[in-house]
Amino acid sequence: MSDRPPTSVLLPTTRWTDACAELAAQLGAGDELLIVHDDEGDPVAERKDHPEGVRLVAAGEPEQCSGKANAIAAGMGAARHDRLVWTDDDFHHPPDWLATFTADYETHGPVSEVPYFVGRDPLSVLLEPLYASAGSLGLYLGNQIWGGAVVFERTDIDEAAFLDDLRRTVSDDGLLMEYLQVTTVGRTRIVPIGGTIREAIERPVRWTQILRWHFPGTVAGICVFSLLVLVGAVSAPLPAAVILTLVHLAVNEVLGVRRWTAVLAYPSLFVFVPLLFYGLVRRTFVWGGRRYRWHGKFDVEVVE
Questions:
Q1: 3-state SS of the chain: helix, strand, coil percent to 5?
Q2: Which residues contact 100 (CB under 8 A, 6 or more apart)?
Q3: Does residue 141 contact residue 71 with C-beta atoms inside 8 Å?
Q4: How far apart are alpha carbons 250 and 254 in whole angstroms?
Q5: 284 - beta bridge partners?
Q6: CB atoms < 10 A from the CB of 16, how many?
Q7: Where are the membrane-spanning stretches (predicted)?
Q8: What is the pLDDT of residues 128-185, one digit of tens each?
Q9: Over the chain, what is the mean pLDDT?
């Protein structure tokens, strides 16, 4: 291992997943992996034989923020080190992930990777091309933050103000974008999503509302552009289908992912646009088993 500063890895999860074991095996001298869960009733809390460097942190139930925001706030409070890595439990962390990722900090300062969402149900599969172009590509080209893979140090942000805001909102990475500038390194992580149609519908609702409250200009631009593309797709179906397919093949090449689902770009548009507007008018959404009503950026109600 290099002589890099010790790192605190924050992993919100209620279960011991493959990602927990992968990250525990990558800890260097002085590093720690904080498994941040809700309470002692979670399955991960029942596990007693944790590898060296692994600590469990009980965040408690969220009151005015999302479960994810609550977990990150608790994890940052419990972390022993200045260098922090946020990550998620829903994608594969190869053996050199932590060493490579933290080494990137020495070259670029705060960095983030880019997710590529792969569907596990028919609707999520259909929406893959639009998630790649409207989501992943924007993160990659705009040097924006994905909360599933970001490294920074406490001195890079106004930590006290950030944590105060985090405990009053939904999106951890959406908020972090307002406090931190990052470089997106050229690595894309495959993130499986969905599993049920309900999950596939709830996800774009949450993402749309994150944009609505954190980046209203961006979501307005996406809505207008999507409507214009949809009108073109209806007016000239064959040319539109060819162009959209080629564009999404190019998007996949930029992201370093080759997926057959690029051929679904044309039909995906007819589902994506209605879901986009549905997400803007929907009053509640479900995330991680909890239902939220998001009245304003810092006005969150945990419904159930």
A1: 50, 20, 30
A2: none
A3: no
A4: 6
A5: 293
A6: 20
A7: 219-251, 263-281
A8: 999 999 999 999 999 999 999 999 999 999 999 999 999 999 999 999 999 999 999 9
A9: 95
Question: How far apart are alpha carbons 174 and 22 in whole angstroms?
Answer: 26
Indicate the domain borders of the chain.
1-108+145-181, 117-142+196-294
Gyration radius of the chain's alpha carbons = 19
* Dist. CA 59–CA 36, nearest whole Å: 6
Q: Which residue is associated with the tokens 């922090």?
A: 84
Over range 207-220, report the average pLDDT: 94
Structure token pair of residue 65:
């923020």
Pick the residue with more confidence: 1 or 51? 51
Burial class (CB in 10 A: 0-12, 13-18, 19+), 263: middle
Question: Per the CATH hierarchy, to which homologous superfamily does domain 1-108+145-181 belong?
Answer: Spore Coat Polysaccharide Biosynthesis Protein SpsA; Chain A (3.90.550.10)
Q: pTM for the whole thing? A: 0.94
pLDDT at 50: 86
Q: Please state the φ and ψ torsions of residue 170, each to the nearest 5 degrees.
A: -105, -50
Q: Enter the DSSP assignment of 135.
A: I
Place of tokens 């770009």: 265
Query: Which pair of tokens denotes residue 153?
Result: 């140090």
Give how far Cα 84 sits from Cα of 76, 102, 172, 180, 195, Å. Answer: 8, 9, 14, 13, 31
